[in-house]
Design brief:
257 residues, mainly alpha, Rossmann fold, Helicase, Ruva Protein, domain 3, Arc Repressor Mutant, subunit A, 3 domains, three-stranded parallel beta sheet, two-stranded antiparallel sheet, 12 helices, flat
Length: 257
C-alpha cells in the first residue's frame, strides 16, 4: 500500500497516535480496541510524510527511533510491533538550515536524507506546464465526469507565463476552477483568474551594446555578489535570489566555465 499523511494538517497532540496508533484507554475518547497508525497500515509498502518540516520537535525522537529500529509501540501500549515500511518525505523548506537553527532534529534529517531528489519550483520548469495541464485536465475530467477537456492556446500561454508561487497545487486548483466555470469541455482565457492574466514577468531585457552590460553579465554579477554576502552558502543564496539550489548550481557552473 501507499499511505500519505500531511504532517502540517495534524494537530500536535494527535501526531503520534496518527503515526503509531493507540491502544484502548490510551486517552479520553480513544476507540474501543484501539486503532492502528499509519505505519501499521502501510506495512509492506510506502509511507509518504508530506511537509515533514511541520512534524513537532517533541515527536521527532520517536519517529527516528521507529525508523531506525523498524518497530514501534502504540500510544498507551506496551507491545512491540515490528514494521517493514519504506519512508518518503517531502518539504518545501531547507531542512538542513532548519536543523542547524534548532527547528528540526539534525539526526532525523540525516536519517531521512538517504536519497535526495531536488524538484525545482514550477517557475523554473515552464516547459513542463503544457504536459502538467494535460494530465490535470484528464484527472479533473475523471473526477467531475467530464470527458475530453481541452485548453485553448491563449489560455495555455497565460498559464505558461505565470510564476506559480503555489506550484502544482495552485495550478491544479486554477484548472479545476476553470473546468467548473467553462460552459463546455474547452477551457478559454475568459475563465482564467484575473491575477494570472494580469501577471507580468519581472525579467529585464537589455541589449548587449557597447557600454551596457548584457542580461547574462547582470545575472552573473548578482549571483556572485549574493554568494559573497552569504559566504558561499548555497541554500541562503538560493533563497535570496528566489531560485532553487539545483538551478543555482547550474548557473554557477556555467558562469565559472
Amino acid at each position: 500500500p501507499f499511505i500519505a499523511i500531511n504532517c502540517a494538517a495534524i494537530p500536535r497532540d494527535l501526531v503520534e497516535s496518527e503515526l503509531f496508533g493507540y491502544d484502548e484507554g490510551a486517552f479520553t475518547g480513544a476507540k474501543r480496541g484501539g486503532r492502528p497508525g499509519k505505519f501499521e497500515i502501510a506495512e509492506g509498502g510506502t509511507l509518504f510524510l508530506d511537509e515533514i518540516e511541520s512534524m513537532p520537535l517533541e515527536s521527532q525522537p520517536k519517529l527516528l527511533r521507529v525508523i531506525e529500529s523498524n518497530q514501534l509501540m502504540r500510544v498507551g501500549g506496551n507491545k512491540v510491533i515490528p514494521i517493514d515500511v519504506r519512508i518518503i518525505s517531502s518539504t518545501n523548506q531547507d531542512l538542513l538550515s532548519a536543523a542547524k537553527e534548532g527547528n528540526f532534529r539534525e539526526d532525523l534529517y540525516y536519517r531521512l536524507n538517504t536519497v535526495n531528489v531536488d524538484i525545482p519550483p514550477l517557475r523554473d520548469r515552464k516547459d513542463d506546464i503544457p504536459i502538467l495541464v494535460k494530465y490535470i485536465c484528464g484527472k479533473i475530467g475523471r473526477k467531475l465526469n467530464k470527458n475530453n477537456i481541452e485548453i485553448d492556446k491563449k489560455a495555455l500561454k497565460v498559464l505558461c507565463d505565470y510564476n506559480w508561487p503555489g506550484n502544482i497545487r495552485e495550478l491544479e486548483n486554477v484548472i479545476e476552477s476553470a473546468v467548473l466555470l467553462s460552459k463546455n469541455s474547452k477551457i478559454t482565457i475568459g475563465v482564467i483568474p484575473e491575477n494570472i492574466k494580469r501577471f507580468k514577468s519581472n525579467k529585464l531585457y537589455i541589449k548587449d551594446e557597447k557600454g551596457v552590460n548584457s542580461l547574462i553579465d547582470i545575472e552573473k554579477e548578482a549571483i556572485f555578489k549574493v554568494l559573497k554576502e552569504v559566504k558561499g552558502n548555497i541554500s541562503k543564496a538560493s533563497r535570496v535570489l528566489g531560485i532553487d539550489r539545483s538551478t543555482l548550481y547550474r548557473k554557477i557552473k556555467k558562469f565559472k566555465s
